[in-house]
Amino acid sequence: MSATLHSIAGSRSFRVNWMLNELGEAVTITPYAIMDGSLQNPEFKAKSPARRVPALEIDGRVLYESGAIVQYLCETRDGHGLMPAIDNVERADWLQWLHYAETMGAGIQNLNMQHLFLPKDWMKSPTVMGIETKRLAIALKAVETTLTDGRAHLLASGFSAADVMMGFTLESARRYVAFENSPLTAAYLDRLKTRDAYKAAEAAEGPQQFYTQDFYDLPEG
């Protein structure tokens, strides 16, 4: 039986979709829209207490935190190299990158709220936008620094689930922080997007629902 992924195109559910495709796991996508009230459906609320995607029905249960889902899939599926073993020297780095992607994601979420979802200009704060953009730019430096030794992915050993977590984050981060001064990060993101599983996940989800611009400048004020 295939898993069921409750998803909004372009949201954190993309991480789970991508991860399932990397593992070759069958998945059925149940789509939602962020502004149409579908997340308030009682049936969905029973699956996701925070009323947010992703929610993944798999193995007889529902999981609803993207980082936890990615780690769970690594731990319960065999025959892949997406997670270093517990006694592997890279295990700590893998765990750190897995969760660092959400450190950055929190800032992106705040910027999304300011730029995309607050309906009136008077609700938006150029000060908050500036602070969050600067914090995101600082956090991104860790990725660029890690890639300076010539590695192609976050771990020296190669592609892992940490790149799945980070790849989605970078695709969103580039809307707010220009990558011109982070050429290694830009090239890394481009490499991730050429993966067959990434492209399959994109095709399954359809166009992202959030961004109407490639880049969002800070407003004056």
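That was protein one. Protein two is written in the same sequence-then-structure order:
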Amino acid sequence: MNEFVTWLLGVIQDVDPVLRTLLAGVAMAFETSVFLGVIVPGDTVAIAAGTAVGSPVEGLALVGAIVAGSLLGESVGFWLGKTFGPALRASRLGRRLGERNWDRAEGYLSRRGGPAIFLSRFLPVLHSLVPLTVGMSGMRYRRFIAWTLPACVLWASAYVTVAALAAGSYRQMADNLHQAGYLFVAVIVAFILLTYVIKRIIARSERHHLEHPGHRHGASGMED
């Protein structure tokens, strides 16, 4: 296992740091764009790039690139929603996402307002549809950014930090501990499972409110 993990981490680390950081930012821009967020695995991109971090400066640069890419992608979704929302929803791509997902995004935003934008960054599918739905809702762009920015920072920091610490610890132990590779994989898998559980809890709470409309806060939470 050590040989494989060392080889894999080496392949990633051999990529020029500047290029690697830029690629991560571009990947996140696609990941958070409407529709593409369902296809591009942002979690994998952040973890893979994070394993190659060799210094605090590289770590901060990577987090900055991921946040910038995320904000760019979400801004694209916002402006598409503001300009072409209904037509985009009625398009073939929009229909393939399913009316149920569009209704979920609208209901989620209507019930929770700003917090829905923050929480949607941690939910599959919704993190691509909510920016588009926000653009259609009439919420101002600056308020949208005020809610999504801290979510993007928290998300990027968590993934990069865990990946960097896990990879750094592995490199320190690899020469003296035969099971270091297994420990590295265990840490990454445990983190992925933890994030999955958190996402499930948030999603379950969202479904609970959907099934009990009496808890709705109303669309007033979206007004600036």
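The chain is about 80% helix and 0% strand. Keep this in mind for the problem set.
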